Amino acid sequence: MIRETLTAVLDSYSDGSAFSGIDPYELREKIGALGFLPEEGKGFEQVLKDTEEVILPHMLRTWSTSYMPHLHSPVLTETICSELIIACFNSSMDSWDQGPAATELEESMVFGLLELFGFPKEGDGCFTSGGSQSNISAIIAARDWYCMRKFGQDVKKDGLPKEYSKLRIYTSEISHFSMDKASHILGMGYQAVRKIPVDSKCRIDLKAFERMLEEDVKAGLYPYCAVATMGSTDFGSIDDARGMRELCDRYGMYLHADAAYGSGLIMSPTYRDRIAAASLCDSITVDFHKMFLMPISCSAILVRDKELLKCFELHADYLNREEDEEDGYINLVGKSMQTTRRFDALKVYMAFQTRGVNGYGRIIDTAVENASYFYNKIAKDPEFIAPVEPELSSVVFALVHGDEVNKKVRRILLSEGTVIGQTVKDGRVMLKFTLLNPNLTHGQIDVIVARIKEIGNSLAE
Ligand SMILES: Cc1ncc(COP(=O)(O)O)c(C=O)c1O
């Protein structure tokens, strides 16, 4: 079964395109016709045949060099092998007796990551389902830490302090929306998220941040946490975490680094300095399913002080007895929001060991250099606008012919099997390349640019 499935996957890929270009209504009809739950099972052979005929042709091929809309990467082959092992053994990370080797390997990878990102040995970490979960874990830890320090309130046991509606979190106006979601889930609502303006390079304006803090404290609010985006979703811009650290220290605040995107730079000998200041934060989100090219899902939250993750610690007689730990059986559920949890750390282990620092360095440098190549090419071209020079591997740009033309260009490319991104900057519709695929060549970039211009000019006529 596994061999036949692999053959079907390989056979499904006949050209270089990222997508079949099928219309959504037609695809919905085809998928609907597959049915839901038959009375009698059809048998694997038939199911694989149906899957091969109806589903696989219209899957998005992340490995295609014509795929560049999102922080959604092609995956390293060794990590596909890891997924097979993960699925076969189906280890769960909540308790030692559900994954002895898995638990020990995750712990070992976490301690390696602490060192890699410049955190002390007293730190800790945990794998999560993605950047959003890593961010919310950090914000919960920040809130509990602050409430204990400021109000002597143990939120885990006693709930929120009466001042909770005055707590404020600070992040840039272009930060990821998981901050707003986290604030809602934490019971403080979107109103508690203060959006700091960004400068011309899309980085937090530190002066504006300082002014907001002064005004908010004067108004009786409680700034408890700030989030430095180290690799913003659209622009790849990297906030000045060092400057933010100074302000956070002055105001007794927690500082989290959302390095979901930019964390990959740590592997680059050339660009790692760009995110070195993440080590000054109290916690860091690291996503392996973005620049590190691993299958979804794979992320980690790292904290500088292991006490911070204790906000998730809780014991149950059926799962993680206190005496287990005394006897050396570590139960990782005590560090996590989730109970049952995947053994994603295996992917990190297998990829790190396969590639080494040098192999990974080349992958990351290629992504960053491709973005630079593309930016330099269009920045000189009067038919394009490219407002922000990339620090990472994303470039936001537009044709000068206006919003409607730009939107149509993306749709036409999609129907041709080339998938690029779309966003908005300063009220204008923009296009976006998110360049994660190390196999992308300058020649291929030139071809896509030429096609974009061609479509744009024909629409603008
Ligand atoms: C900067 C940033 N933070 C967090 C996230 C959320 O990550 P995930 O989609 O893995 O939940 C993203 C996703 O693109 C992101 O770009």
The CATH homologous superfamily of the largest domain:
Type I PLP-dependent aspartate aminotransferase-like (Major domain)
- Strand percent estimate: 5-15%
How far the N terminus sits from the C terminus, by CA atoms, comes to 54 Å
Poorly predicted segments: none
Total strands: the figure is: 12
Q: If you consult CATH, what is the topology of the largest domain?
A: Aspartate Aminotransferase, domain 2
Describe this structure in words.
The protein is α/β, with parallel strands linked by helices. The protein folds into two domains: 82-350, Aspartate Aminotransferase, domain 2 (3-Layer(aba) Sandwich); 358-460, Aspartate Aminotransferase, domain 1, CATH 3.90.1150. 41% of the residues lie in helices and 14% in strands. It has helices spanning 2-11, 24-32, 44-55, 77-89, 100-116, 131-151, 155-158, 178-185, 206-218, 241-250, 322-326, 345-379, 403-415, 442-460, and strands at 67-68, 124-128, 167-172, 193-196, 222-229, 254-259, 283-287, 299-303, 384-385, 394-399, 419-425, 428-434. The protein has a seven-stranded mixed sheet, sandwiched between helices. Helix 4 (77-89) runs antiparallel to helix 12. The longest helix is centred in the last third of the chain and has 35 residues, at 345-379. The protein is globular. The model has no long low-confidence stretch (mean pLDDT 96).
